[in-house]
Design brief:
By secondary structure, the protein is an alpha+beta fold. The chain folds into 4 domains: 186 residues, Neutral Protease, domain 2 (Orthogonal Bundle); 185 residues, Immunoglobulin-like; 92 residues, Zincin-like, CATH 3.30.2010; 135 residues, Peptidase M1, leukotriene A4 hydrolase/aminopeptidase C-terminal domain (Serine Threonine Protein Phosphatase 5, Tetratricopeptide repeat), CATH 1.25.40.320. Helix 6 runs antiparallel to helix 7, helix 6 packs across helix 8 and helix 17 runs parallel beside helix 19. It is globular. The chain has a 6-stranded mixed sheet with strand order 4-7-2-1-10-12, with no helix packed on it. The longest helix is centred in the middle third of the chain and has 24 residues. Bound molecules: ligand BES and zinc ion. Zinc ion binds next to helix 6.
């Protein structure tokens, strides 16, 4: 018998016996998670056996094929294993695994567990005694949840485009990995794409295209799997300062550079607050409008929606936010998705500090006031839905999609908790504390309890009465908004409260009253309108005077369209349709589809629009919309 056949046969036997060993149903998943939980190890959303082995470095070699909409090639993991460890369990989702080999090239037995809709499949690899590296050859599915493959007509130019979105647990749909935020690894990659395109990653990036279409990447600082990122398209680069720049399709590049002219200033301000930027270069990649989020903090290369290009820099706090993640999140990382508020709450706090430094206190107060309004709405909505526990900062997302934790509780309640600490201990002490926190815990995972212990030890224990006044446990493990939240006051927005008093009684709004309004004034006004008192005449007046339906600021449009749907203001419907088809940012889509789905007629119309729009949406967005319309 030829040796290959023997190896093949042996493998088949192994695979079969492993198959029998695995119970191959969702119980297997649950048991694995329960065991991990009991041991205090592992991650509630990963199959990985983290207590036995850590995959500490990845070498990727992937070919990008726009015809089949697949990535295929190899991922080699360098392992750090316990002596007793005899298997490696990785997370996968919709991956076709061709072969697994160890360092010396001999094949390893492997099996795929039962499919779970959200968590995917465990890939269990039998580890030979001395194996330090494991090479997996695989192909992604055209439906890979992290990836969006765009046809040329879905971009600003004439070339196709590919981008990834790995957070929270979608990395496993393009790289077999220990898909848990508490695990950090370094990586290198070779990406082969069509020669007229540029490939970029969350790594050291090329600045221009080459003729071969082969690009090599290195990420020498350890990152979590949710920060793995790849984009391929007709992209160009322009510098915005010492260590910053913008990538975009040529048609979008100058507009983006203009919008982000304060970026270098933001980096410098952030460093002045909480210590050096540890990642070398900071660039922003402006994606096509189907990008499902506002921004994603992929290390060295923030991914951003083009819907923040308002033309007046009024939406650039999003860049401050993603930049701030270079400390809160990318350096000090939430250990599990239950600790998500540690990433986002800290980042919103930090973002506001950057914004305050650059644009002043009054500006920051407007943002904070708007944030407070959003928090109140979110908490009300969650309470109504019987999800009071989801208004705690520390979440219990076990057996749930971590996406369910993506609410303003993590962002805004998290930020206000930090503001509460600041207001009690004073800014100077709090800033010193945060700087020390980011420095001492850099490149480490952080759990909620770890943070509370750190806070006590390095700040509160030294100040008498601090713990009792701040009540950290109430903030973290309790519902709603604690009563000791500091008051927010924005004089600019207080003036709008006065205007709203008359408007909500059927009054008018004049051009004179709004002449110095910026985006944030408008958002505050629109959110303050009492819908039950709003007349059709007032809608028409607003639209005629201020051209709201034909506006170009995506945030204002979204708030205006919400009102238009509630009031069935049909004049706006063609524009709403265009918006729903042209933009894939989930934060804008879900509230609009939800409102449409409230009536039979609206729902039917929404379904019609969705059929047209869906091919342009990323999986993250269309799955949420499908849930709404079902
Ligand atoms: N990391 C998040 C985006 C995210 C969170 C994606 C969880 C998937 C799962 C990013 O930093 C973010 O918060 N983006 C916001 C913008 C921000 C200014 C609030 C967004 O996309 O709207
Ligand atoms: Zn964020």
């Amino acid at each position: 018998m030829n040796p290959n056949t023997i190896v093949g046969l042996k493998r088949t036997i192994w695979v079969f016996s492993l198959f029998l060993l695995c119970t191959c149903n969702s119980k297997e998943y649950k048991n694995n998670m329960d065991t991990n939980k009991r041991a205090g190890l592992g991650d509630p959303h990963s199959f990985a056996n983290l207590d036995e082995v850590i995959a500490g470095h990845a070498s990727l070699d992937l070919k990008v094929d726009f015809n089949t909409k697949t990535l295929s090639g190899t991922c080699t993991w360098t392992l750090n294993r316990r002596a007793t460890c005899d298997s490696l369990v990785l997370d996968t989702r919709d991956l076709t695994i061709h072969n697994v080999y160890q360092d010396d090239g001999t094949p390893c037995a492997f099996s795929l567990g039962a499919k779970h809709e959200t968590f995917g499949q465990a890939l269990t690899i039998k580890l030979p005694k001395n194996a330090k590296k494991i090479l997996i050859s695989y192909t992604t599915s055209p439906e890979a949840a992290a990836l969006q493959w765009l046809d040329p007509q879905q971009t600003a130019g004439e070339d196709p485009f590919l981008f990834s979105q790995s957070q929270a647990i979608l990395a496993r749909s393009w790289v077999p990995c220990q898909d848990a935020p508490g695990v950090k690894f370094t990586y290198d990659a070779k990406i082969t794409c069509p020669p007229n395109l540029l490939a970029l990653m969350s790594a050291e990036n090329p600045k221009e295209k080459n003729n071969s279409g082969v690009y090599n990447f290195k990420m020498e600082q350890a990152i979590s799997s949710y920060l793995l990122a790849l984009a391929v398209g007709n992209l160009e680069f322009k510098s915005t300062g010492r260590n910053s720049g913008v990538y975009a399709e040529p048609a979008m590049l100058q507009k983006s550079v203009n919008e982000f002219e304060d970026m270098q200033h933001m980096i410098d301000s952030a460093e002045a607050l909480y210590g050096p930027y540890k990642w070398g270069q900071y660039d922003v990649l402006v994606l096509p409008p189907s990008f499902p989020f506002g921004g994603m903090e992929n290390p060295r290369l923030t991914f951003a929606t083009p819907t923040i290009l308002a033309g007046d820099k009024s939406l650039v706090s999003l860049i401050a936010h993603e930049l701030a993640h270079s400390w809160s999140g990318n350096l000090v990382t939430n250990k599990t998705w239950n600790d998500f508020w540690l990433n986002e709450g800290f980042t919103v706090y930090f973002e506001q500090r950057i914004m305050e430094k650059i644009y002043g206190t009054e500006y920051e107060r407007m943002l904070t006031t708007l944030g407070f309004g959003e928090l109140q709405n979110t908490i009300q909505r969650l309470n109504k839905a019987g999800k009071r526990k989801d208004t705690h900062l520390y979440l219990n997302l076990e057996n749930r999609d971590p996406d369910e934790g993506l609410t303003d509780v993590a962002y805004e309640k998290g930020r206000f908790f930090l503001q509460t600490i600041e207001s009690f201990v004073g800014r100077k002490k709090f800033d010193n504390f945060l700087k020390q926190y980011f420095t001492e815990n850099a490149f480490k995972p952080m759990s909620t309890q770890d943070f509370l212990d750190y806070l006590d030890k390095h700040l509160l224990d030294t100040l008498s009465g601090a713990e009792d006044s701040i009540k950290p446990h109430m903030w973290v493990y309790g519902p709603g908004i604690p009563g000791n939240i500091p008051k927010v006051k924005s004089h600019a927005l207080d003036k709008i409260d006065n205007l709203l008093l008359t408007f909500n009684k059927g009054g008018n709004l004049t051009k004179k009253e709004t002449q110095d309004w910026t985006t944030h004034h408008w958002l505050y006004f629109l959110r303050g309108i009492e819908l039950e008192n709003l007349s059709n005449k007032q809608m028409k007046m607003l639209d005629t005077n201020f051209q709201l339906t034909n506006g170009s600021n995506a945030e204002i449009l979204c708030d205006w369209f919400k009102i238009a749907i509630e009031k069935e203001y049909k004049t706006a419907y063609p524009a709403i349709r265009k918006f729903l088809i042209g933009v894939g940012r989930r934060k804008f889509l879900t509230p609009l589809y939800e409102r449409l789905a409230q009536t039979e007629e609206g729902k039917a119309w929404a379904k019609e629009v969705f059929i047209e729009a869906k091919p342009g949406y990323h999986a993250v967005s269309y799955q949420s919309i499908e849930e709404i319309l079902e």
